[in-house]
Amino acid sequence: MNILNSIHNMDVTTFYWLMARKHRQLLTRASRVISMSADGPLYVVLALAAWSLGFETWAYIIMGGFALERVLYLILKRSFKRNRPADILDDFTSFIRPSDKFSFPSGHTSGAFFMAYCLSEWFPELYLSFYSWSAMVAMSRIFLGVHFPTDTAMGALLGTTCAMVSFGVLT
């Protein structure tokens, strides 16, 4: 249990360091837009677009991978029940209202890294853009005050792993 306390303390210290950045207001405004770009319904639209354009395998990979990701995400959220920064840090209020109660792992980050992996497989020349976007989504969730850094790190791992499994099974 001591190692979990050490990780939590490091997480809180890093979180406060990020919140103390000189241009935090600008980062917060940009984070709202970046975070919204990773909202789940957009991935459904992407899967439907792939399907309608004749890329059925792509649609199956997106749908199957997200189904796996969401199941694992919900299991992890309900198992760990880690409170969000605003719920445990004194004198801190997040900049947005989170969609659920717990913070670990970050679902926005998980979805973004899932999509970055998939899109990088299909358009390898653009991989740097896709992974830069997904990293910005992860950082945006922290700057908005709804996740600790390890929440987003686990989200990145979860999304990437689910994409790898989806590609391994469906291609």
UniProtKB/TrEMBL annotation:
Entries under InterPro entries matching the protein: PAP2/HPO (IPR000326), PAP2/HPO_sf (IPR036938)
Topology of this chain in the membrane: Multi-pass membrane protein
Listed GO MF terms: undecaprenyl-diphosphatase activity
Keyword Transmembrane set for record: yes
Recorded GO CC terms: plasma membrane
Known EC number: 3.6.1.27
Domain Phosphatidic acid phosphatase type 2/haloperoxidase: 58-167
Compartment list: Cell membrane
Transmembrane segments: 30-51, 57-76, 152-170
Catalytic activity: di-trans,octa-cis-undecaprenyl diphosphate + H2O = di-trans,octa-cis-undecaprenyl phosphate + phosphate + H(+)
Keyword field: Cell membrane, Hydrolase, Membrane, Transmembrane, Transmembrane helix
Protein name as annotated: undecaprenyl-diphosphate phosphatase
